[in-house]
């Protein structure tokens, strides 16, 4: 189906909005009246700009407080409408949205509403305009879609139909099944918006918290199925009022928006995309750093060994078991200081994974960085992290390790208690505006599931964290975002390494000269109050700075290294099916990090 | 009464919070458990720190999910409580908050709750601790204050009393009058928080949106009167969970907090402060600028004349009628580029106004800047703007104009159509975190009333605006704040000058070489749709960039100059008692400003 977006969903001037919608691949736009009023472009110029950008103008919106009023008031409303229909002729659009009235002058009189909407449609017809009447969830007398439809039906005018808006329908808890009783050709327009499930005043909820389908809690796919069954064949149009999107860069928002519509259409069989290829593990994490020394010291103390070096680039491979970390000291160190730049995802079908990512509008990165490199499929995540879809030592597929030459190194003695054996999870701090976008990206592009979103109290502000994971838990990525833009170093990214004995791992790390983040004594006094531990257990945790959590499934023990640049490491031990990340302990860890300067 | 604040209400480390509370003049604190857990200080060190800072520890909080559970669970809870009572002994505090349980294990059994709370109180008594039981608004079985009190009463234990929290009581719509039926000595603690009136989930409302008394919509004063009548004589303590305060600088928040308690106490006769001295007009606005030329060009074109120069400083006085603007090119130009640095408020009693401001914790500025200057009472507003309480040409009071020497200038011909005659309003953009603080400051310190708060859609983000005014409307200050920190130049401050003929004023301004901000043609097409104008009227507005608004009382016409640095000017014509500021037009004006580079 054709896709469209209301200009109010994007930030910036009208020109910026139109450009962003076009670049993201939308077919059309709804022109929001205030965007037009504030634009220096004439309606004819807007029309031409849209044509140049390959955009149709699918709707002009909104017209408010038209119907069910005393005759003198209605005469004024018709006068106003005539001006707008003339404007629409200049714009070259033939559909206008009329919202159910909120005027205190309006009468609770459906027959009057139908008669006046019919007269409005008469006038509209003279201008070649079709009127789409929509129930606002907070409309004065008409607030449900079936009520709006009954008025449209009663008017029985060819230029009058209804507009359905998923927010107005689902926020009221209306059953969308009744949509199928509306003749498809009388559904003149469909506006889609999701929203988080908040118990709050519906008008405030609508004006500030709408989001793109799949980013909230509504069953938009279910509603869309009913609309399709009714026979609607107009555009799928996003109308999202969101305080954050109002501030975010329009181009990014538009891509996020269209991705949401692609996934929505796929979910009900309206679009066919390359299927998701769920990663089966983390092949590697890649750090960039201007100075390998501090990172190397920590990795060595963590028990990883430098086993290989890239053939043509200053990139070292550090590994232990399936935990592999690349340390890149090349000019690719684009970020300030030391940071996490890329993630290798072990993929059963790297090419297929990249095809899906591309279909879902992820920027595709060059397959070969140098002529001699093995081909490697990669895309950029919304936060700029490079995601490589790759295979480790699987004969049927290009092997990313083939680009690395083995270094002679002293093998450490076989099995060691507490040895790190894989990456448990990666924690990626997202740019302020892009939390929902990142979650949708990781779910739709990578086929990961979202876990519960949690608030974490940092001493200097709340932030929000949400993990995405595959079903086996072998890929876990924790996405976090602060409450506002910040330069705060402690909102760094981190790599958590799994061990089956965190106490032994921590001791060995310390013995090898590694610096563990010390935790406050009061924390351990509180653990003693909350849980009973075996003799000496708590003293050990206290000594090593190990944090403890427990859920219905199992236990979690974890500790942290000092921060290097914008990165730190965590050692984690999961027992008995614990699924979380120790969010309970995060405020204590964050406070401890605020008390320390990062190493450089 | 003694004042106290919960550490959770302030941002930062525990040490930073305690320091801020002490500096703002609080007598005590509630220690929030998570702040203690995350602190590297031992309980003994925290106790000593508080003593050094002159703070008592009035409460340790919270203890959760204690009561009405099966015996084996309760035994674990008592064990946990014993640990906390030991901790409290080390801290040197004797009161603990117990919140009504939210545990799914809890039984709906008041007798069991009373019996177990009694046993908890037995244990507490051994440690010299008093238990204050509070109903959470979302408690599982106990969610109202009278229910919590009935359980405390049934337990009949000397070490068990109740804690009242204004948020939990008022958010549920409970009638606070019943508080008077509780014996004062059984009200062990009182926590105060206000909140905006939002229809939303009460837990989310409580956790994110609480604010200080007078900043929300609750009748905190009414509740406090009931508590005082009940005989409560403990501290007034603020417990505020607020996403913004979590990020704001603790020292500023603590001052804002204590100011709110002072005003609250004054409002019900518990504190005696110097009375408010409401300003009767705006004596002057003072601009600082590194280069007087662009400002002078605009002021001259606006019809103001440079009439006087400060005796000892590079400050010029520009005036016309009662519109007076100082242009300061001295080193006092602290801000980057051109900005509004000070406001002179015409005061019937400048010294009294300053005494009140000082009592309400406003930083008092030196009365004489130089030995020869006339004494001038001044304080700093929260945004750093200097507020001078002054008198213009009133013989009984020091005259600020006495410091200025008249310049020879050519008098313009007497009455001129559209001449500017006074400052209609000043618009001051507030730092991001300080909107509620600024509104409370202007209301309490200056005795101005708050007008309605409105959302304004800037093309690049929503912002919020709220005006404060005196009853005659001769002082109007519009406070605005953006949705997030921004460097955006168009969120500048501005000075609106009143005229009784904005068309004539705009024409003269333009004829004198002034640059008016052009407005888009589409805006005028929309005006034509909405209103009927006299012949030629709209064409004039369109030509000059005059915006139009209308409310139930009257009409408003206004236009804007180009921006210089961070300041621009507005010409406004109010007719028939219009009370607003043209907020309806602000998105169009903001978009027009985004399209222009400010002059420097």
TrEMBL record, chains A, B:
Coiled coil: none
EC number: 4.2.1.118
PROSITE patterns associated with the record: VOC
Record-listed Mg(2+) binding positions: 425, 494, 570
EC top class named in words: lyase
Record-annotated VOC domain positions: 281-392, 422-574
Cofactor(s) annotated in UniProt: a divalent metal cation
Superkingdom in the source lineage: Bacteria
GO terms under biological process: 3,4-dihydroxybenzoate biosynthetic process
Pathway: Aromatic compound metabolism; 3,4-dihydroxybenzoate biosynthesis
One GO MF term: metal ion binding
UniProt key word Transcription regulation: no
Reaction(s) the record says it catalyses: 3-dehydroshikimate = 3,4-dihydroxybenzoate + H2O
Keyword list, A-Z: Dioxygenase, Lyase, Metal-binding, Oxidoreductase
Family: Belongs to the bacterial two-domain DSD family.
HAMAP family to which the protein is assigned, alphabetical: DSD (MF_02238)
Job of this protein: Catalyzes the conversion of 3-dehydroshikimate to protocatechuate (3,4-dihydroxybenzoate), a common intermediate of quinate and shikimate degradation pathways.
Protein name: 3-dehydroshikimate dehydratase
